[in-house]
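Protein: Extensin-like C-terminal domain-containing protein
Species: Rhizobium herbae
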Amino acid sequence: MHLRIIASLLSILLLSSAGLPEKGPLPEQKPATTETAKPAEKTEKKAKEDPLPSKDEKPAQTSPETKPSPDTPSIETPESKPEPVLTIAPEDGKEYAACLTALKELGATFREEKRIDDGKGCGIDKPLTLQTVLPGITLKPEGKMRCETALELARWTKDAVLPAVRAALENEGPLTTINQASSYICRLRNNAKTGKISEHARGNAIDIASFTFKSGKSIEIQPRDEDSTLAGAFQRAVTATGCLYFETVLDPGSDEAHEDHLHFDVIERKGGYRYCR
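Structure follows.
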């Protein structure tokens, strides 16, 4: 009897030390899949119910409009620049009168003409037609130009050409004719289709083609840099002295367009600069 009681007490002690509950069965564990699935369902549901960003969140950026590259031409057409308006410069009345007086004193003959306006900047405000450069020296053919151009031509002939004739061509007799190739004419420089307007189109220029003497001999303008004759010396002398009277002097050595004449003009340049070649 005592032995059974002792055995029962030992069994109770052993069960208590094993940590088993005194009453009822052990609690059942819930499957892990049930607990992890619920948060995912809540997240998905929230995303459907609340698609808008919160106040602290920045809205998603949409793709910016495509900007044209630097090489892409602009759609807008730029306004075309207006072409410069070429006008005929008015001449000072007092200066013109003084020029006419000086031209008459040199013995030149001429007739005054009406104002020329051929459009596109071509024309002369106070033109004249020069007939004789000096007494006994005809301009052939007669030429239209500004008074200043005619005056410088007469001065050059008197002070430079006639002394060169006496020194180099005295046997040919006096100079009787200066043959011109171009005076006033409405055109661009060197008869080009594009470019700047010629000084001939403003009455500022004259081209000399040859000189004729009483003997009938003519000295034609041509390349003479290596010409060792008196004709060559004469041409080089009158060409060099031309720049004492005209602001621009072009001779056969300047370019192909001037191989057969001397170009003289009275265009004003900054600082009194002269172009002679």
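Remarks: The chain has five helices and eleven strands.
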